[in-house]
């Protein structure tokens, strides 16, 4: 109970701050990416009220269950989100999300877009990862907004730390309807190459990112942001009990990995962190068989965030 009381106090405070500062009276801008000029992004006018989530309110849970399509803007090679245009993806996402809608808990659809991709070669900065085009992020955000959906930016950092790889995406994270996903599978220790071994990250490194993002959210009087922590082995995130959960963020322990239903449900129970919200990932082709929405919602506890790759 104390956790939700703290979040309620936070929401009230930032709502007052937003009203006083007129934080929602100005439209966010989109960098052109070439000449430094900016163009206005279309947002709903809300001059007399704080910015809200796409389907209302300023806190993610427990009001909504989030359902996502995962992938990169690559034509579908890294996941279902990349198939077709961003608007095509938004329509398919809406159909998938609707299968989880229940009278007592509506869904908030999410596009989980990989924006930093791990590589088998070091690249110019030695990170073994490369950022994608910022313009792709804006394209998916425009499509998400047209359908009242959220965008979550997925980071595969390679050998570089999560914070530096995340900060480059601040123009998008400044937006009220953009969250973050940290994919520890691709956080490589020194000497390791993505794809040749499973990565790992400490709770301390994750906490530096969530602290930075919570501060950004608070300063800009933004709604609560979802933050996914992908994991499918116990040691992928070390010192998990030390993970912070700032009230500005909805931090989600997201059980990843494909396999049989018994394997997936056992892993979900083992990796569940009672201090965080719950997440569960499904794979359209690799899961044998693919669990139905009824089966997913039968997990204990039922996941707050469900994604499809």
Automatic annotation (TrEMBL):
<protein>
    <recommendedName>
        <fullName>Lipoprotein</fullName>
    </recommendedName>
</protein>
<feature type="compositionally biased region" description="Polar residues">
    <location>
        <begin position="26"/>
        <end position="43"/>
    </location>
</feature>
<feature type="signal peptide">
    <location>
        <begin position="1"/>
        <end position="23"/>
    </location>
</feature>
<keyword id="KW-0732">Signal</keyword>
<feature type="region of interest" description="Disordered">
    <location>
        <begin position="25"/>
        <end position="49"/>
    </location>
</feature>
């Amino acid at each position: 109970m104390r956790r939700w009381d703290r979040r309620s106090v936070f929401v009230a405070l930032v709502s007052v701050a937003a009203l006083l500062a007129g934080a929602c009276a100005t439209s966010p801008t989109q960098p052109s990416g070439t000449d430094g000029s900016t163009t206005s992004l279309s947002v709903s006018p809300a001059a007399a009220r704080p910015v809200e989530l796409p389907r209302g309110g300023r806190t993610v849970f427990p009001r909504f269950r989030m359902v996502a399509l995962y992938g990169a803007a690559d034509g579908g090679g890294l996941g279902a989100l990349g198939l077709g245009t961003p608007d095509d993806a938004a329509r398919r996402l809406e159909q998938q999300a609707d299968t989880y809608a229940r009278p007592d808990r509506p869904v908030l659809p999410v596009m989980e877009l990989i924006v930093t991709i791990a590589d088998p070669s070091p690249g110019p900065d030695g990170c073994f990862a490369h950022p994608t085009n910022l313009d792709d992020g804006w394209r998916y955000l425009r499509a998400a907004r047209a359908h009242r959906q959220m965008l979550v930016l997925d980071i595969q950092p390679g050998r570089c730390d999560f914070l530096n790889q995340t900060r480059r995406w601040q123009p998008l994270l400044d937006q009220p309807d953009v969250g973050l996903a940290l994919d520890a599978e691709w956080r490589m220790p020194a000497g390791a190459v993505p794809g040749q071994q499973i990565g790992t990250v400490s709770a301390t490194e994750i906490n530096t990112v969530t602290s930075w993002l919570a501060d950004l959210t608070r300063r800009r009087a933004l709604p609560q942001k979802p933050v996914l922590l992908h994991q499918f082995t116990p040691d992928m995130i070390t010192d998990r009990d030390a993970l912070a959960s700032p009230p500005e963020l909805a931090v989600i322990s997201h059980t990843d990995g494909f396999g049989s239903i018994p394997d997936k449900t056992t892993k979900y129970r083992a990796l569940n962190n009672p201090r965080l919200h719950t997440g569960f990932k499904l794979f359209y082709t690799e899961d044998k068989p693919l669990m139905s929405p009824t089966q997913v919602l039968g997990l204990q506890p039922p996941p707050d965030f469900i994604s499809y790759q």
